Amino acid sequence: MTRVLALIPGDVGRQLLFFPTLETLHRHYSQIEIDVIVEPRAKQAFRLCRTVDNVLTFQFENRNGAADWGNLIGQMRDRRYDASITISREWTAGLLCWLVGIPQRVGYENLALPAWVRFARKRFPTLGGTVADLSGKCLTAAVPPNARPYDAQRYHDLLLGLGIDTPCPDISIQIPVDDQNWAKAEEERLGIAGKPYIILHGGTGAENSDDEPSQFYPIRSWESVIEGYLERQPDTPLVVVQTPENKDWVASLVAVCPQLQIVTPQHVGQLAAFIDAGHLMICADRAPLHLGVAVKTRLVALFGALEPTRHLPTAANFAGLKSLTSKVADIPPIQVLEKVWGVS
Asked: What Gene3D superfamilies does the entry give (predicted)?
């Protein structure tokens, strides 16, 4: 096997969770070329990936026209892939790979059928059942979506369809030297070089999670967390991450907590480098969480309805805090502080 394609719809966080699968694939076939098709918003994640050769983009969620699909099929056909892997539960992903003639096509079984197929199967069992069966035949290996708690492990199980049965490695990333230098320069600018600073990330912006709607942790709750932390560690610098989309939120937070400093990374590489250099991060369930896991920075992540085990591996320096009401805003600040002291 020399050339493999991975179709990975979703946000930056979903790409990072798929990195262990790409790493194992690369280790198993040392001479392999790996291409990925992702949405434009997620392309930046591969700035941190050392195993992918080409990144193609496609708006999976859009109402694409025939020209869009034709262009994508043409690109895929020109590359002559030996195998494809997709995390999509939509049957069209397998159909797409079948149309371009990829010999081995791996995905999850129990694919999500479109509404018209479900309707036909109910009203016209013979015809509808035949169409449903054909949709499943688009895959040459349908892997059961095992009930593993961590999404990275669940994605890694797809390799069973290629006969690869090895443990799932940790998420790992390669931070470009330019991004590391940027982080060092920011530490110098803020006067925190060599100090164990704390990073606060509110979870807004292009790196939002597809698995859970964006939810703000209230400014007053952040204020209580910050004050509680500084009561015990008064000399520790606290830095809040600002993105183009959360400037108003950052301004409101700094207005009540003027001791905060602001850092404004331009892309995921700079953010990863800054997280790597930090002592601890408090964040929402968003891409920065997975960056923190990759660089093994201590972190406390706030979750709404999603179970923390889906996005956090089991480790002493990672802690997830799930709201009892499925609303992040209802998490008491004292509980956040308890988790912080637990991983510090």
From this structure: Glycogen Phosphorylase B (3.40.50.2000)
